[in-house]
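From the methods appendix. Each design record in this collection lists the tokenized structure first, followed by the designed amino acid sequence. Records were kept in a plain field format so they could be parsed without special tools. The example shown here is representative of the layout used throughout.

RECORD:
FOLD TOKENS (420 positions):
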């Protein structure tokens, strides 16, 4: 039985470890926190999972909360201009529903599931020397840690990293008691674009205490929405959110009058520098040198504006699992690691980076898409489903010419439909 180590207990690491155990490998997972610590800690992300990622989890028997989590079929989008005036509105319909499960529930549950299925779990932190020792004792070591010393072992790939600093200041809050602008259409996510200021996302989710709403501010650094840099407690965070809403989104402020944080760990604030790192790191020297393979946030970190983090991690875990199984008894060389990671980059990860960059920078042709979405349901639907399948970005959003050709085709089709 081949021995494989996985370092990091997020979406990618745990999903990969569970898949390897199911495939008959001897797996050691290194996690910093126990299930109890994860459940009792602070929220970790917004983690909206789209149809393709949800199908991966379901096929692996990991969709343990599918019946409880709200299913989101559409996103209501709006463009707001100062002073709090809604300029346009559109509805983006998903071909498959999305769901969001609080990762404190999900990851804690998966840790317990891994232990129950025979995986070995070591609860400890690792530094470079500890990782080197672990890698020497296993045939393959996969690192799924996207922060701290271990992530720093993977060199930044400047050619593939579109940014060198955070593009948004982030503030996430889980709440109960948010009202709905149209109860008959719920559950539905909402997205507000505030040009020159940032974006606001609201999505239904499942947390410890049942269904809830997750708010995510994406504020331009230094702008009027960037007021959470001191990482305030959830109650203070909520008070500031209400103040911002009264000024910039007064109709949302009305819906938040009864809102309350779900728990003491319901808030998260900070910033993310989008980065692509080289997927293989060499540890040690000489005859004792070993290589480790990065996955998930250890290799590609996206701003959450396009919702690609957990979705890409799920796809990476599936792709790496398939590559490991297909490799059979052959040695896991550095060359094999590079080829495995590059295959996933070309098939999927590069599209998440490009799509996320487009949503962060909003070039003129992407602005034209949002305007067209308010007029044409076909455009709104395709935009929604590009979040679920970001490779479609290359077919219609990657350049002004592609977008112009697509929008012309949509308008021509609708004109022909009227004539007929």
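DESIGN:
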């Amino acid at each position: 039985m081949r021995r494989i180590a996985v370092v990091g207990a997020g979406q990618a690491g745990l999903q990969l470890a569970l898949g390897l155990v199911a495939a008959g490998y001897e797996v050691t997972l290194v996690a910093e926190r126990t299930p109890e610590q994860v459940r009792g800690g602070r929220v970790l992300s917004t983690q909206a999972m789209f149809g393709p990622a949800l199908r991966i989890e379901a096929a692996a028997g990991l969709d343990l909360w599918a019946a409880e989590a709200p299913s989101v079929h559409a996103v209501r989008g709006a463009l707001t201009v100062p002073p709090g005036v809604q300029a346009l509105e559109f509805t983006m319909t998903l071909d498959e529903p999305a769901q969001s499960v609080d990762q404190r529930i999900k990851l804690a549950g998966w840790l317990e599931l891994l232990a129950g299925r025979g995986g070995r779990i070591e609860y400890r932190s690792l530094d470079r020397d500890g990782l080197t020792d672990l890698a020497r004792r296993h045939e393959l070591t996969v690192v799924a840690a996207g922060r701290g010393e271990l992530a720093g072992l993977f060199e930044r790939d400047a050619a593939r990293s579109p940014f060198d600093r955070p593009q948004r200041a982030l503030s996430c809050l889980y709440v109960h008691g948010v009202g709905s602008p149209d109860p008959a259409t719920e559950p539905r996510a909402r997205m507000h674009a505030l040009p020159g200021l940032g974006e606001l996302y609201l999505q239904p989710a499942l947390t410890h205490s049942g269904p809830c709403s997750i708010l995510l501010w994406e504020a331009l650094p230094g702008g009027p929405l960037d007021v959470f840099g001191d990482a305030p407690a959830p109650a203070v965070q909520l008070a500031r959110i209400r103040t911002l809403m009264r000024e910039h989104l007064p109709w949302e402020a009305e819906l938040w009058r009864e809102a309350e944080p779900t728990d003491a760990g319901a808030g998260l604030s900070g910033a993310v520098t989008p980065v692509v790192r080289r997927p293989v790191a060499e540890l040690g020297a000489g005859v004792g040198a070993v290589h480790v393979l990065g996955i998930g946030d250890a290799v590609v970190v996206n701003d959450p504006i396009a919702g690609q983090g957990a979705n890409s991690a799920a796809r990476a875990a599936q792709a790496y699992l398939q590559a490991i199984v297909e490799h059979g008894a052959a040695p896991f060389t550095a060359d094999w690691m590079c080829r495995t990671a590059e295959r996933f980059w070309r098939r999927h990860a590069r599209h998440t980076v490009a799509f996320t960059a487009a949503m962060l920078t909003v070039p003129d042709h992407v602005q034209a898409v949002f305007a067209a979405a308010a007029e044409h349901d076909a455009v709104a639907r395709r935009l929604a489903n590009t979040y679920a399948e970001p490779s479609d970005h290359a077919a219609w959003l990657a350049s002004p010419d592609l977008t112009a050709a697509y929008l012309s085709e949509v308008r021509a089709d609708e004109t022909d439909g009227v004539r007929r």
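APPENDIX NOTE: The chain has a mean pLDDT of 95.
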